[in-house]
Amino acid sequence: MLRQLASAAYRNAYLLLVLNMLFWSGNFVLGRGVHEHIPPIALSWWRWLMAGIIIAPIAWPYVRRDWPVIKNHLPILFFLGAVGVGSFNSLAYLGLNYTTAINALVVQSSGPVLIALASYVLFRDQLTWGQVAGIAISLVGVLVVIVQGDFGVLATLALNMGDGLILTAMAFWALYTAFLRKRPDIHWLSYTAVTFWIGALVVTPFYIFEHVAVRQIQPTMTTLLAVSYVAIFPGLLAYVFFNRGVQLIGSTRAGVFMHLVPLFGTVLSIGLLGEQLRLFHLTGFALILAGVWLASQKPPA
Q1: DSSP secondary-structure letter at 213?
Q2: How far apart are CA 150 and CA 135, in angstroms?
């Protein structure tokens, strides 16, 4: 019975993507909530190390079977693991040291338009004038959040570094999503495990530098619970669900679900972190949503 339910769920892209976005919203909120307890690169490294260890015994038979294909496609697998696993999360956690979770969540909602833009630039996916206008409007919405509604700060360049890091992280995620079409035809467990291991490997030198020169992670119950959550839910399960969702309905349609992250995350941020929702958040989010709606419209026949 449980196996049948799991099999049915694994074929339901919409259920997988909704759960995926719920887990990711918790990732942003937790990343902000523990930023004083856990250094950002340490959180990223331990997340992928733990997720990689958890998936290893399950995935190893498939990795061994798929090894000839994996070996022949190591460059693209390394790129996907480095960009979408190691870099994206490290930049996001670093940004959450300098901005609120709500700010990060709203900037994150630019993901779908960045994915569409990356897909056009890299693979010449069709881009209509409506999509171009939608991308422009969405990016204005992101800018509203970054300058907190005061465009005068552009003259002084007094921008929030945290918001800039989150936007950079989302650009990396757009690259990852666009390049998913190039992933080799291997079992999803093989793909997930290999990219997790690569992500942890890529983050390792930065973690060593942070540990030696900046600050160290402290072994507390808060640390253990936080790392366990980000490894299992936003890490292992969310990536499996997202990759499967993209496989079922494509990167552009899957990207639209990313707008559930600020919805879920804002509720969690207000309830758990006591953050305040301000007018510039709503204005920026409305512009981003309007841009995505415009970009998602089909051209007239």
Answers
A1: I
A2: 21
> In 3-state terms, what secondary structure has residue 127?
coil
pTM of the model: 0.83
Question: pLDDT for 78-128, tens place per residue?
Answer: 999 999 999 999 999 999 999 888 888 878 877 877 888 888 888 877 777
In terms of Cα–Cα distance, which of 188, 263, 210 is closest to 93? 210
The pLDDT tens digits of the residues spanning 288-301 come to: 778 767 766 666 65
Q: Which of 34, 175, 15, 133 is nearest to 93 (CA)?
A: 34
Given its phi and psi angles, is residue 138 left (phi above 0), alpha (psi -120 to 50 degrees) or beta?
Answer: alpha
Region of 76 (left: φ > 0; alpha: ψ -120 to 50; beta: rest) is: alpha
Q: Which two tokens stand for residue 39?
A: 């250094």
**In whole angstroms, what separates CA 216 from the centre of its chain?**
25
Give CA–CA dist 213/225, Å, rounded. 25
Contacts of 217 by beta carbon, 8 Å cutoff, 6+ apart: 38, 39, 42, 43, 46, 211, 223
Q: What share of the chain is helix, strand, coil (3-state, %, to 5)?
A: 80, 0, 20
Report the distance separating Cα 223 and Cα 245, nearest Å: 31
Query: Structure tokens of 256?
Result: 């639209």
- Cα three-residue angle 79-243-105, rounded to 5 degrees: 85
Q: What is the number of alpha carbons within 13 Å of residue 20 lying toward its C-beta?
A: 23
How many H helices and E strands in the chain? 16, 0
Contact of 87 with 172, CB cutoff 8 Å: yes
User: For the chain, what is the largest distance between any 2 Cα atoms, rounded to a whole number of angstroms?
Assistant: 62
